[in-house]
Model the fold of this input.
Amino acid sequence: MVILLREIGFAIFLFLTIYFLVLAKKPKIKKEEIKMRSKTNRFFLGMLLSALNFFPVPYYVFVTITLSSYRLFLFERTSIFLFLVGVLLGSFMLFYYYIAFFKKIENKTDFFFKNMNKIIGSITGVIALVTLFNIIKYYY
Done:
């Protein structure tokens, strides 16, 4: 079962790599400012984007299966609760540092917008290669 989930994860990450490096269009840089009416609209827009984001689901499935295959994670309530708390605290801190970091480089974002697809494609490519290495290691 673990190797099947790894193979499915490899296929997903390989598809995402090909999409972001080959098929995705380059983002257009707009110099216009987006006017938001209130901060509550920003909150609900963030909630909507979070609900639509499917990328973490295969990632956390891959992480828990990998940790389980090395016997570092048990499917018990305590382990699941501690993993969940770690994910929540890590996500909160990461988003907080995102905000702090992007406020510092607010005017220097042209590089990131021009190369965002390449950056995401590279990250998913590395994950796909690591997964492929683990699959090959299992079979040979």
Q: What stands out?
A: The chain has a mean pLDDT of 81.
